[in-house]
Amino acid sequence: MSEPERSHLSGKALEVYDRMLERVQTRLKTLPDITVQALEDEVQKAVEFEYELEEMTREESDLLGAYLERDLKHLMHFMEETGEGLEEWLQLDIALLEHQLADRLLSVADKTLVDTLELNQKLDNTDAGHYISGEVATAGMFRCLNCSHMRCLTATSHLEPCEACGSHYYERVTSRWPKQEE
């Protein structure tokens, strides 16, 4: 999304998102049991706290709270389903190297075959966390739903349109990338 389309968030959005995340994490550590309701309550408290600082409007605070809640719920669901932790959810270390290697290999591959495989992959796509460019998201790997190009966020950021095809739609990649069968 271009800057004018993102004008609904102030320049402090990324800083505020991180502060809200830190506040929620600190509060959740004190709870004996982390439930979705507890998560929602803590996010709402963080939204109210940020709104009271008067650095952001009510709408901006609420929007960042919705982004934060989405990311944290997705993390909780991932951990519950897979038993994996934050490192696997973020997939930053090895994924960066794999992405570079994949780009090099795809540059010499048969374009028609690659396009067919990507189309099949899109058609097989099941329910996943979906994101739209311009939204604030925490660090992690994101796949363009149009062309499957990978985008890596290493810190809380605005998702930009896909640099490969210009699409605005992404999904978070939260499981190990499948190994290619020989």
What are the key terms here?
4-stranded antiparallel sheet; disordered N terminus; 182 residues; single chain; globular; alpha+beta; 6 helices
What does this entry look like structurally?
With 182 residues, the protein is of the alpha+beta class. 52% of the residues lie in helices and 12% in strands. The protein contains 6 helices and 6 strands, in the order H-H-H-H-H-H-E-E-E-E-E-E. The strands form 2 sheets. It has a 4-stranded antiparallel beta sheet with strand order 1-6-3-4, with helices on one face. The chain has a two-stranded antiparallel ribbon with strand order 2-5. A hairpin with a 5-residue loop joins strand 3 and strand 4.
Q: How would you sum up this structure in a few lines?
A:
With 182 residues, this protein is α+β, with helices and mostly antiparallel strands.
Radius of gyration over C-alpha positions, nearest whole angstrom: 18 Å
Q: Based on Cα principal axes, name the global outline.
A: globular
Q: Beta-sheet strand percentage?
A: 5-15%
Give a quick account of the main beta sheet: strands, pairing sense, barrel closure: 4 strands, antiparallel
From the helix content, strand content and strand pairing, which structural class follows? alpha+beta
Order of helices and strands: HHHHHHEEEEEE
